[in-house]
Design goal:
The protein is α/β, with parallel strands linked by helices. Strands 1, 2, 3, 6, 7 and 8 form a six-stranded parallel sheet that branches. Strands 4-5 form a two-stranded parallel sheet. It is built from ten helices and eight strands. Helix 1 packs parallel to helix 2, helix 6 packs across helix 7 and helix 7 packs parallel to helix 9. The protein is globular. 43% of the residues lie in helices and 14% in strands.
Length: 239
């Protein structure tokens, strides 16, 4: 039987990350939380405090997500390099340990940015590409499987995965049903099931019950639970 890896990751550094980490722990799971300490998407009052970030780091892997969460392709290379490095340094100063996993804000990067991330000392970088179920071929362009959010553009991908129009509509309307379908695909073939999202997004859409249902489905003794960093380390060791 092929190995089935399950990993989860959560972006930006919102105060609700602690609630999400508790949900993961309730299902015997951990996760990777990518933190942008001065994230422009989150009001300062809603960002994780240093104390909360340290608490989160005791439960989960902490990754870097730049300093202010810019579109890397829209800024000069020297500014992008500074965002990558200073974001990591700020997080490491708070949690007192090394940060080796990186996530591109908005999943936006150009050809030069993976080399910047590698040169900065990271061992992996995650994008927001979805519907990825195989082992990543490039650890600095790691994709994901499903997002805890409804994407209206997912229709064609969903239709290719089911012959039932009713089921297709259900998965299109409910990301948790889509996630469960994709998880079954990974269980059948081996590979990686990677759930990602934002704690504030789960809260804004009142999706905590859907998240719990998804996590319950993933709580399977036949899978290997890993953080993003652990997954990268296992794949690198295997190579």
């Amino acid at each position: 039987m092929q190995t089935v890896y399950v990993t989860t990751s959560w972006d930006d550094g919102h105060e609700l990350d602690l609630k999400l980490a508790a949900e993961l722990a309730d299902h015997g799971m951990s996760g990777t939380f990518y933190i942008a300490p001065q994230c422009r998407e989150i009001p300062e009052a809603k960002r994780l405090t240093p104390t909360a970030l340290r608490e989160l780091s005791e439960q989960c892997e902490i990754g870097a997500h730049t300093l202010t969460h810019p579109h890397l392709s829209a800024i000069p290379d020297d500014v992008a390099r500074r965002e990558i490095i200073e974001g990591r340094d700020a997080v490491e100063e708070v949690i007192g340990r090394s940060v080796t996993s990186f996530c591109y804000p908005y999943g936006d990067f150009s050809d030069q940015h993976p080399d910047m991330v590698r040169s900065a000392g990271f061992t992996s970088a995650r994008s927001v590409e979805r519907f990825c179920t195989g082992l990543p071929e490039d650890l600095f362009r790691m994709g994901t499987t499903t997002h805890g959010y409804q994407h209206l553009v997912d229709g064609p991908q969903i239709l290719r995965r089911t012959r039932s129009p009713r089921r297709a509509v259900g998965m299109w309307r409910n990301w948790e049903l889509l996630g469960r379908q994709l998880f079954e695909e990974v269980r059948a073939t081996g590979g990686v099931f990677h759930l990602w999202g934002h704690s504030w997004e789960i809260d804004a859409n009142d999706d905590w019950s859907r998240l719990r249902t998804m996590l319950k489905e993933l709580s399977n003794p036949d899978v290997v639970f890993v953080t993003n960093g652990e997954l990268a380390a296992e794949l690198k060791a295997a190579v």
